[in-house]
Amino acid sequence: MACVVSWCIDFVLKYFCFAGNYGTTTLNMRPVYPTKTFPNHYSIVTGLYPESHGIVDNKMYDVNIDAFFSLKTEQKFNPEWYQGEPVWVTAMHQNLKTGTFFWPGSDVNVSGLFPNYYKLYDKYVTFEKRVKTLFNWLSLPEGERPDFYTLYLDEPDTSGHRYGPNSKQVVAALEDVDRIMGMLMDGLKEKNLTDCVNLIIVSDHGMEEATCERAAYVSSYVDKVDDFTVIQGPAARIRPSALPQNYFSFDYEGLVKNLSCRTPDQPMRPYLKENLPKRMHFANNVRIERGHLYMREGWQAALQKEIKYCKGGFHGSDNLFTNMQAIFIGYGPAFKHHTVVPPFENIEVYNLMCDLLGIRPAPNNGTHGSLNHLLKNPVYRPVHPAQLSHDTPCEANDPTPTDDLQCTCSLFCVCFFLFLIIRVLLDLNAKGPETDSLITSNMVPMFPKFKDVWTHFHDVLLPKYSQQLNGVNVMSGPIFDENYDGNLESNSKTIPLTAPVPTHFFVILTSCGNSTFNPANCEGPLQAQSFILPHRPDHTESCSDGADLTWVEDWLKFHAARVRDIELLTGLSFYHDRISVEETLQLKTLLKTA
Fold it and tell me: For residues 155 and 173, is the Cβ–Cβ distance under 8 A?
């Protein structure tokens, strides 16, 4: 596998184009958030989100060991920072040999193992020498020769930071990288290895043009800034100054409140990490500070006027932004030819590499089999999870239940029945207005402010989407994720005789990919757009406090999610009867944003 630290290539590069045209590629590969170098490289080789593998940034602090990580200190080699299992360790556990010519984490004793062949990172080693060393390893006798290789090139990232992504220096760097790719591919051809070597070319993230005119300074919003610092950039974090003693006790909530809605059209939105969009998977790790500054596209944040990248280029922003997207090219005997697939997340690449190597992957955040459509002959055949409950008849001819189920319903009935479908027009609740019956406040508690949004979605947005898509199937329900780990919570945590308050509500809209058909009669692939909406008592996130709810649609899209994210949070599994398992996994792991 070769990694080019890069972004989308908008002009002709001979060898990239050859590999892309004759192999399998995608419009873009979505990096993980934050779109930084170390987090993304380690996600690619572990299949884990940063919150799961621990490398949450290029610079971070761990309160448990009271230590700071950076790429310029010896802590970079401390195995305690690296969680999860990189693919070279997985391969070695299953009796394969590995060689890495640079890759974040490959020069660290992860899980008690180094790759069989590896190099300490040295940016001054020429690209030519890196490729020649790989061919030396390829020439070793059988039994000594690696089965898996990585090659890392730090261009055009270096030139992009220095000169900006649209500079002539970046064009020159890309041309040089293309030349090195040619050296690699021509060398494989000369050794008659093109029919037995699978090559994956990836980048870790994109690049944005930097300017000080698009910088927000926290000191401009609050006066007292001596008790905290800001890890600056486009995914800025708030860290207490007194460490480790104030790491947990610091008033993150108060500071986030003071930074919220201070100016019209504010480019910096403060969040508690548990309130960030679920699609980011950036909360469940102690190394992620609780205070987070989400930045608008093209913007960065800092404590004071000290921004690192006032010129040149930067990255780290929302992984949905166009300029943050990465590349993926698969070329070789296992990959389909002349194939372009829809976008996918880089956490899926680990399982793909394991399949190419014929080894069992370690547990990871990817969905095994979701990239089977890239391969000529997939080796892993996924199946639907076993059904845990079965259909039972439901009779509701009389609005008064004949069986009280030993419940007293003077106020409400606590029912741990997670799934519910909105707009079932059965008058089974004689008390309260109709909207309450339809919108589930009698099943799960709902904040009044959120109910306004929920009603607006069903009364205004849903009819519009249904008209645009020729009908939609709607599935919705509550989510309980108090520990913000992104997984289903146990009922054992609930308080008896009380209704637990959802942290989120989910919505899945399913329509036919061919809009001449409605979902029920769809011919061809389905498409799904899903959302995980935070259940909050106010509209502070959107800085809105009036009757005008036109902002809801943008807020809805901001909290877009994969169907797979909803499954993990609810324990449900969708689309069992409609299409093949492999097609279903593609549908579930696609993050549709428009």
Answer: yes
d(CA 528, CA 154): 37
For 273-316, what is the HEC assignment? HHHCCHHHCCCCCCCCCCEEEEECCCCEEECCCCCCCCCCEECC
Give the C-alpha separation, 364 to 94, whole Å: 17
Phi/psi at 188 (5° precision)? -65, -40
Asked, as a colleague might, if the bond just before 399 is cis with ω within 30 of 0, I would say: no
Rounded Cα–Cα distance for residues 114 and 179 (Å):
30
> How far is Cα 467 from Cα 463, in angstroms, rounded to an integer?
6
Structure tokens, 364 = 């990871």
Place of tokens 């630290």: 5
| pLDDT higher than 50, residue 412 | no
Distance CA 274, CA 251 (A): 15
Question: 8: closest CA among 233, 315, 214?
Answer: 315
- Is 37 tagged catalytic? yes
Classify burial at 504, counting beta carbons within 10 Å of its beta carbon; exposed 0-12, middle 13-18, buried 19 or more. buried
Structural domains present in the chain: 2-52+82-206+321-374 (3.40.720.10), 212-310 (3.30.1360.180), 434-589 (3.40.570.10)
**Rounded (10°) angle between helices 37-46 and 349-357:** 40
Catalytic member of 24, 25, 26, 37: 37
Q: Residue 365: which H helix or E strand, with range? A: none
pLDDT per position as a tens digit, 143-173: 999 999 999 999 999 999 999 999 999 999 9
Residue 408 makes CB contacts below 8 A (sequence gap 6+) with: none
CA 532 to chain centre: 14
Is residue 522's pLDDT more than 80? yes
Structure tokens at 329: 């090219």
pTM, 2 dp:
0.90
Q: Which residue has the tokens 């901001």?
A: 558
The secondary structure of 229-274, three-state, reads EEECECEEEEEECCCCCCCCCCCHHHHHHHHCCCCCCCCEEEEEHH
What does DSSP assign to residue 413? -
* Amino acid making up residue 483: N
pLDDT of 269 higher than 50: yes
Per-residue pLDDT tens for 425-474?
Answer: 333 333 444 444 344 455 788 999 999 999 999 999 999 999 999 999 99
pLDDT band at 13 (very low <50, low <70, confident <90, very high): confident
As given in the structure block, the two tokens for residue 590 are: 């696609």
Smallest CA-to-CA distance from 122 within 102, 137, 106 is with 102
User: Which residues, 6 or more positions from 497, have their beta carbon under 8 angstroms from its beta carbon?
Assistant: 414
Please classify residue 302 by burial: count the beta carbons closer than 10 Å to its beta carbon, then call 0-12 exposed, 13-18 middle and 19+ buried: buried
Distance in angstroms (rounded) separating the CA atoms of residues 478 and 483 = 15
**What is the dihedral angle through the alpha carbons of 183, 185, 188, 190, rounded to the nearest 10 degrees?**
-70
